[in-house]
Amino acid sequence: MGTYLYKNKKSSRILYAIILTFALFFFSSAGFRDTLVSGWYQQWITGLNGSTIKDMTFLDSLTGFAVTNVNSSYLGFILKTTNGGDNWTINYTYNPPYTNVSFIKIKFINDNTGYAITDYIHLIKTTNSGDNWFSINSNIYPEDVSIINSDTIMAVKSNGLNGGVYRTTNGGYNWQLIWTNGSAG
Q1: pLDDT at residue 27, rounded to an integer
Q2: DSSP characters over 114-173
Q3: 3-class SS at 177?
Q4: Sign of CA dihedral 120, 132, 107, 170
Q5: Taking CA atoms, which of 2, 12, 48, 95 is between 20 and 30 Å from 87?
């Protein structure tokens, strides 16, 4: 009986050593690769001619939109992806009235209705998920906006003469100054 117990302990130790060695090997190599793999990679979108992305938003895991600054040809762009950002297409080309005017934000309130905001008087709006865009003159030069619903938009502007918080209740066609902190905006 003593010999059997001795052999059983010895085989248990060998089995334990094998399992421990295998576990150490497995856990120390898990997650390591011989090549670098990253979730991020740089993309080149043809036709932008030097424009860079200023803002982006996604409606779901696949459909997203981005806006760019203006390039050397004085054009800005609205871009769209339908495959999670792997490929982008130019969805709208903006030809601003001045060289220093650019898109600053893009926001959607639902799958169909969205606004691309410029740092000029133009709001560019879609009501069919970016298939068509049209310009609305806001006359306020917003720096940031919050889209409440398809009619109500809040905008902020820090200009010292007429800065403050503005609101539209008709989709951007008319704006009302609802708050100012005096001459500082």
Answers
A1: 62
A2: EEEEESSSEEEEESSTTSS-EEEE-SS--SEEEE-SSS-EEEEE--TTT-EEEEESSTTS
A3: strand
A4: positive
A5: 95
From residue 45, alpha-carbon distances to 24, 49, 85, 89 in Å are 45, 9, 11, 8
Tell me if residue 28 falls in helix, strand or coil. helix
pLDDT lower than 50: segments of the chain: 184-185
Q: Which residue has the tokens 């820090």?
A: 158
Could you count the other beta carbons within 10 Å of the beta carbon of residue 80? 19
Q: Is-contact 113 89, C-beta < 8 A? A: no
Give CA–CA dist 185/137, Å, rounded: 21
* 141-165 burial: b if 16+ Cβ within 10 Å, else e: bbbebebeebeebbbbbeeeeebbb
Neighbours of 167 (CB within 10 A): 16
Residue 124 confidence (pLDDT): 92
